[in-house]
UniProtKB/TrEMBL annotation:
<dbReference type="InterPro" id="IPR013149">
    <property type="entry name" value="ADH-like_C"/>
</dbReference>
<dbReference type="Pfam" id="PF00107">
    <property type="entry name" value="ADH_zinc_N"/>
</dbReference>
<dbReference type="InterPro" id="IPR013154">
    <property type="entry name" value="ADH-like_N"/>
</dbReference>
<dbReference type="GO" id="GO:0016491">
    <property type="term" value="F:oxidoreductase activity"/>
</dbReference>
<dbReference type="Pfam" id="PF08240">
    <property type="entry name" value="ADH_N"/>
</dbReference>
<keyword id="KW-0521">NADP</keyword>
<dbReference type="InterPro" id="IPR036291">
    <property type="entry name" value="NAD(P)-bd_dom_sf"/>
</dbReference>
<dbReference type="InterPro" id="IPR020843">
    <property type="entry name" value="ER"/>
</dbReference>
<protein>
    <submittedName>
        <fullName>NADPH:quinone reductase-like Zn-dependent oxidoreductase</fullName>
    </submittedName>
</protein>
<dbReference type="InterPro" id="IPR011032">
    <property type="entry name" value="GroES-like_sf"/>
</dbReference>
<feature type="domain" description="Enoyl reductase (ER)">
    <location>
        <begin position="10"/>
        <end position="326"/>
    </location>
</feature>
<dbReference type="InterPro" id="IPR051603">
    <property type="entry name" value="Zinc-ADH_QOR/CCCR"/>
</dbReference>
Length: 329
């Protein structure tokens, strides 16, 4: 089979498409023929050596999220069978399993069967964004009617999922984007308001939209110096989530959090997917949303596996709106 690896840390150019044996699934594992891969910024960070964990050894592989068909199941009762269409969820370390490949051995605990009406493309685009947004906004923050949710980097797949979930639960999603080019798409996704920071002052607009109270929840993947500004725009007693570090800059502790009684909450999706009960609730929520049609796994564009370097270059360009996919023949 063909597999994507990197032999050194760095930019997209370090990715190589190589030949390798597919591996044999052991107990609690399955071999999946990968058809579609969903790209995530976490994978770009892992490749560059800036992720929450480092590659234990090189060469290393990549990939949290994909969809395909089971080709072999390891020993033990799993509930899965050869021929099942499945999504692979982000439940594991990329040091242990990777899905940037034509075939991948993965734990059965990372699999979920796809309903007949869900395409493989949707199955590779939906889980990381919606599980991530669900975990913070629903499982932890418990947002509801009237709450205001401020969403920086709102055009990402996770940002769009947060907009959809907030709106569905009666909260008011305020999207933040740098340029006006993405404003219409964010409004179409359901943002109650869009703040374009190249043209508008973020603080002025958020305080105007919240009548001076600030946002009940802020859902930030950027970090860096701007984190202090977000703390000042979080309502008293509100929650400021930090679930990424796209700025790659130091993030000072905001003193505003002390006086305003703000809960600053570090968060990653594995908090949900590693906990059986919370994971089950999250899967039920997302599955219902797909069936009901309100949950939209927004897809920007697809690349063939041969163009994985170009796909990662596009991922880091920040030009996309929603999910980037890689298709495997």
């Amino acid at each position: 089979m063909r597999v994507v690896r990197f032999h050194e840390l760095g930019g997209p150019e370090v990715l190589r498409l190589e030949e390798a044996a597919p591996g044999v699934p052991g107990a609690g594992e399955a071999l999946v023929r990968i058809r579609v891969i969903g790209l995530n910024r976490a994978e770009a960070s892992f490749r560059a050596g800036r992720y929450i964990e480092q590659a234990r050894e090189l060469p290393a592989g990549l990939g949290y999220e994909a969809a395909g068909v089971i080709e072999q199941v390891g020993d033990g009762e799993s509930g899965f069978a050869v021929g099942d269409r499945v999504s692979i969820l982000p439940t594991f370390s990329m040091n242990d399993y990777q899905v940037y490949a034509e075939q991948a051995v993965v734990p059965v605990s990372a699999l979920v069967k796809l309903a007949a009406e869900v395409s493989l493309e949707q199955g590779a685009a939906v889980w990381m964004p919606y599980l991530t947004a669900y975990g913070a906004l629903v499982d932890i923050a418990g947002i509801g009617k009237g709450d205001t949710v401020l969403i920086p980097a709102a055009s990402s797949s996770v940002g769009l999922a947060a907009i959809r979930i907030a709106g569905r639960l009666g909260a008011v999603p305020i999207a933040v984007t740098r340029t006006a080019a993405k404003k219409a798409a964010l409004e179409e996704a359901g943002a109650a308001a869009v703040v374009v920071t190249d043209e508008q002052d973020l603080a002025t607009e958020v305080l105007r939209l919240t009548e001076g109270a600030g946002a009940t929840v802020v859902f930030d993947p950027v970090a860096g110096p701007g984190f202090n500004d977000l703390a000042q725009l979080t309502a008293r007693g509100g929650t400021l989530f930090l679930y990424g570090s796209l700025s790659n800059q130091p993030t000072p502790f905001p003193r505003a959090a002390i006086g305003r009684g703000i809960n600053i909450r570090g968060y990653v999706v594995f908090e949900i997917t590693a906990h059986p009960v919370r994971k089950a609730r999250a899967l039920e929520f997302v599955t219902a949303g797909l069936a009901e049609g309100w949950l939209d796994p927004a897809i920007d564009r697809s690349f063939p596996l041969d163009e994985i370097v170009t796909a990662h270059e596009y991922l880091e360009s920040n030009k996309h709106i929603g999910k980037i996919l890689v298709t495997v023949d």
